[in-house]
Design brief:
Length: about 190
């Protein structure tokens, strides 16, 4: 649903997926709106729908392969998206391992987005934020340390999705209060 916050008026309502929308983002210039829809089917993948806000017409529909989207960010140029989420990789008939996935795709791309492959195993990527004034983003995931699952905050390259650095899991209390200092390698966390 698209609302006018000054009047409280519902401007548009769109039913796209049976299970609802997982994440939504406006482009930096406000001309595009992207959202992910996840099917109720265990075998169906996510799709990213990109709409032109002024005409409310579909600009593009991008299939996300190997998982489901849980967060998305527009790159600074508004022509590309960083899509974050994961898939549950089967470990047999009854269990699976949550595995984080990052997809990079153009807002006008006609092909399905393939995930960036990581050599390390991370849990679902479920929170992300562009770092102001840089070509990096912060992402939160889970890692296993000493036989327990803990949160980890990672700094990644926005053009490749590759891991640059990570912050000690014990220092990351939650997703609240994350901020990056423009043009430097400094971030602030709450906790």
């Amino acid at each position: 649903r698209l609302w006018n916050t000054q009047t409280g008026e519902l401007i548009r309502s769109e039913h796209c997926y049976n299970s609802g929308t997982a994440c939504i983002a406006f482009s930096h210039d406000g001309s595009l709106l992207a959202f992910s829809g996840n099917s109720n089917s265990k075998t169906a993948e996510s799709r990213i729908e990109v709409y032109d806000v002024s005409s409310w017409t579909r600009h593009n529909s991008i299939e996300i392969l190997e998982g489901r989207a849980y967060n998305l960010l527009f790159q600074r140029d508004d022509k590309s998206l960083i899509v974050l989420g994961g898939e549950c990789v089967p470990l047999g008939q009854e269990s699976c391992r949550p595995t984080g996935r990052i997809w990079l795709c153009g807002t006008s791309s006609k092909s399905a987005a393939m995930p960036v492959k990581d050599e390390a195993q991370f849990g679902y990527f479920n929170y992300a934020k562009l770092l102001a004034g840089s070509k990096q983003f912060l992402v939160r995931t889970d890692v296993t340390q000493n036989n327990r699952v803990v949160s980890q905050l990672q700094v990644r390259d926005a053009s490749t999705g590759k891991l640059i650095s990570s912050i000690d899991p014990e220092a990351v209390a939650d997703n609240q209060g994350l901020a990056g200092h423009p043009g430097t390698s400094r971030i602030v966390t709450r906790g």
